[in-house]
């Protein structure tokens, strides 16, 4: 369990002096306890009672009570003081033992325990080490990531002849669409525990072989819980899971996403000194580079085709001097209001002025509510932006970036350009806006009621000879509805009828055509550089027939159709990589298993469907974490996703981006875990693999 990375955690000269004082104090306490107990009349009563027969115990005890009573009232009045003294000595003795345990764990167990840690901190550290999730309020539940670590050796326990073992039956789930995941299910993840090693009370010293052959006799079993059943002890022993060895695996470069507000609204570097210190720390562990959002709303904020790259020029120079690589995100959306947004960056002011007079440039829902986070795809070819179409505006912006930083392209410092294709930079509709009241796991709402999208819908209906189909569905519920509550998404609903298939096909194709247009321009502007496009992981209601949340997002992926194959083919056409995030629980307030069950979600099944759709057309995959992660359980999940175990073709991610750089990541324990993750992504041989 201990590693060589850190021999002293939280220990200082002050801690050592404190431990020595506690030790001397403990020795004095033991002498005082022994002396006190040898003269205490209370112990005489207990010994006398223990030595008498059952029939004479009450009589003997009565005699002793009379003797104590006849000796005077002083002894009776002193008894409470003696009890208090004994309690005080016991408490000091207990604290001395606790201090020794904590000191040992800090020095030898690689536990980041504070100097004044208590037993709760110890239990939480041990639980996390065993792969459990411990929330700040004490809520504890098993982590699903334990399955990413295969069991080493045979999963057997050799017990004494009177022992008996019960192993939970494990089943392998059927992967959706016949996709083989190569991993065990979440049920198997949580059932990797054996309960039922029986040890008779009559022979407590009988050794039992536990796990890998370690003998346990009268010693207590560390890390196990013991219950009793029918006079026998039931020892709950977690199986020892060995960590997967990534030595010799493929080298996957790791980038760290910089804060969203690293460049302020004046296009200035917000905190150059603080950022430089953080980048220098990242450089010490061989991070490959950083990822930066280049915000349209900052660079072209005040007037069309007036670009201000000053802050980015200073930032890129700093990164080049540290010999780091750059990933650039062309961010054509607004920031603020979504999960993880800690700054507010609107669209350019001149675009907002146009939107006030013509709000149809924004996505619009059935109730007429506008979403100014990004422009509607209906204006891609409409000259509504000061005489330019949206595609022309995006191309001019990307071309300006290429001209401004051409030397960084030629020197290979800019290694990838991710092109923003919609809200949050993802190829999707803004179907789940928090500002309009959406909450997980609502199905969301279609966003096609602006005049330009409706114009396209009417044209598509006329081409099909069904003019009355030139409308959006009206039986789709609201943002927070569930599929079975609507006539469109329910089992056997309208989504699978003639009109439903027509509408969903048009809705999805509008999104794909938008991506096709922008990537064509990006390939022209960034010729010779890898480009990428990001998809969103809409995994709730995946285990229903309609996949309602995906449909409103633009992914036409019901249970009888593969909606991601068409997207992969479009990306393949432009030689673009697919960025699909490693999915996690969408809300930290409840255990992940509860959320997935209630929403009929399947993030694992969705991830493998998307990855197979990309790999079927030889499309490179890049990824990022969807929520901040600092614990090894989360890192293990990311590693096993990036480098699938036993993949016959040895496929793996092209690159990985960690979200994101912040002071919490640079805390001592968190940074050590991140370095451990980084080394395994690089395929380096590590000698401190935890057993």
Report on the structure:
The termini are close together. The longest helix has 36 residues, at 73-108. This protein is globular. It is 38% helix and 12% strand. A hairpin with a 5-residue loop joins strand 1 (132-134) and strand 2 (140-142). Helix 16 (564-573) runs parallel beside helix 18 and helix 19 (632-642) runs parallel beside helix 20. It is an alpha/beta fold and 691 residues long. It catalyses: Hydrolysis of (1->4)-alpha-D-glucosidic linkages in polysaccharides so as to remove successive maltose units from the non-reducing ends of the chains.
Give a brief outline of the structure:
By secondary structure, this protein is of the alpha/beta class. It contains 20 helices and 17 strands.
List the helices and strands and how they pair.
Blueprint: H1 13-39, H2 41-51, H3 57-70, H4 73-108, H5 119-129, E1 132-134, E2 140-142, H6 186-190, E3 193-200, E4 208-210, E5 214-216, E6 225-229, E7 232-238, E8 254-257, H7 272-284, E9 289-295, H8 296-299, H9 310-321, E10 325-331, H10 349-357, E11 362-364, E12 370-375, H11 390-404, H12 406-410, E13 414-419, H13 451-464, H14 498-525, E14 530-534, H15 548-553, H16 564-573, E15 577-579, H17 592-598, H18 603-616, E16 621-624, H19 632-642, E17 655-658, H20 668-681
Helix pairs in contact: 1-4, 2-3, 11-14, 14-16, 16-18, 19-20
């Amino acid at each position: 369990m201990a590693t060589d990375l850190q021999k002293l955690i939280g220990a200082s000269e002050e801690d050592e002096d404190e431990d020595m004082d506690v030790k001397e104090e403990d020795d004095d306490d033991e002498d005082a306890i022994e002396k006190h107990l040898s003269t205490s009349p209370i112990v005489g009563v207990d010994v006398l009672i223990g030595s008498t027969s059952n029939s004479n115990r009450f009589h003997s005890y009565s005699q002793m009570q009379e003797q104590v009573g006849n000796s005077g009232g002083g002894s009776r009045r002193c008894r409470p003081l003696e009890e208090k003294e004994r309690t005080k000595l016991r408490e000091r003795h207990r604290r001395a033992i606790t201090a020794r345990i904590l000191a040992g764990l800090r020095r030898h167990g690689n536990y980041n325990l504070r100097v004044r840690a208590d037993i709760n901190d110890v239990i939480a550290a041990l639980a996390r080490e065993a792969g459990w999730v411990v929330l700040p309020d004490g809520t504890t539940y098993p982590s699903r990531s334990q399955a990413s670590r295969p069991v080493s050796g045979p999963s057997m326990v050799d017990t004494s002849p009177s022992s008996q073992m019960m192993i939970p039956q494990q089943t392998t789930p059927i992967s959706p669409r016949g996709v083989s995941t190569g991993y065990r299910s979440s049920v198997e993840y949580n059932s990797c525990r054996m309960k039922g090693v029986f040890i008779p009370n009559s022979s407590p010293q009988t050794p039992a072989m536990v796990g890998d052959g370690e003998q346990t006799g009268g010693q207590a079993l560390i890390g196990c819980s013991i219950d009793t059943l029918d006079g026998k002890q039931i020892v709950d022993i977690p199986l020892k899971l060995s960590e997967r060895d990534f030595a010799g695996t493929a080298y996957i470069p790791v980038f760290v996403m910089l804060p969203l507000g690293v460049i302020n609204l004046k296009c200035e570097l917000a905190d150059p000194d603080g950022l430089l210190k953080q980048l220098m720390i990242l450089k010490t562990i061989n991070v490959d580079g950083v990822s930066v959002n280049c915000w349209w709303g900052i660079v072209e904020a005040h007037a069309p085709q007036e670009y201000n790259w000053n802050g980015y020029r200073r930032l890129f120079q700093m990164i080049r001097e540290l010999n780091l690589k750059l990933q650039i995100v062309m961010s054509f959306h607004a920031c603020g209001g979504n999960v993880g947004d800690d700054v507010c960056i609107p669209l350019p002011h001149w675009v907002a002025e146009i939107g006030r007079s013509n709000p149809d440039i924004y996505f619009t829902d059935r109730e007429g509510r506008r979403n100014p986070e990004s422009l509607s795809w209906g204006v891609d070819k409409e000259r509504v932006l000061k005489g330019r179409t949206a595609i022309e505006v995006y191309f001019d912006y990307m071309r300006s970036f290429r001209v401004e930083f051409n030397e960084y392209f030629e020197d290979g410092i800019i290694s990838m350009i991710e092109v923003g294709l919609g809200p949050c930079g993802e190829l999707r509709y803004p179907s789940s806006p928090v500002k309009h009241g959406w909450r997980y796991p609502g199905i969301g709402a279609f966003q096609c009621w602006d005049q330009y999208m409706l114009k396209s819908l009417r044209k598509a209906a006329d081409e099909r000879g069904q003019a009355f189909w030139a409308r959006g569905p009206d039986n789709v519920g609201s943002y927070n509805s569930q599929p079975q509550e609507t006539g469109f998404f329910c089992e056997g609903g309208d989504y699978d009828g003639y009109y439903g298939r027509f509408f969903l096909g048009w809705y999805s194709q509008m999104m794909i055509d938008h991506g096709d247009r922008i990537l064509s321009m990006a390939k022209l502007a960034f010729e010779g550089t890898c480009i990428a496009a990001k998809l969103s992981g809409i995994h709730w209601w995946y285990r229903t027939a309609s996949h309602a949340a995906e449909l409103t997002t633009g992914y036409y992926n019901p249970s009888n159709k593969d909606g991601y194959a068409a997207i992969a083919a479009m990306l393949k056409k432009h030689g673009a990589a697919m960025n699909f995030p490693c999915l996690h629980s969408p809300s930290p307030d409840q255990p992940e298993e509860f959320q997935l069950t209630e929403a009929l979600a399947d993030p694992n099944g969705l991830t493998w469907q998307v990855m197979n759709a990309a790999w079927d057309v030889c499309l490179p995959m890049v990824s990022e974490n969807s929520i901040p992660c600092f614990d090894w359980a989360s890192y293990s999940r990311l590693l096993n996703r990036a480098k699938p175990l036993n993949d016959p073709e040895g496929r793996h991610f092209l690159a990985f981006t960690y979200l994101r750089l912040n002071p919490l990541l640079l805390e001592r324990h968190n940074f050590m875990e991140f370095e451990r993750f980084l080394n395994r992504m690089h395929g380096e041989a590590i000698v401190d693999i935890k057993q």
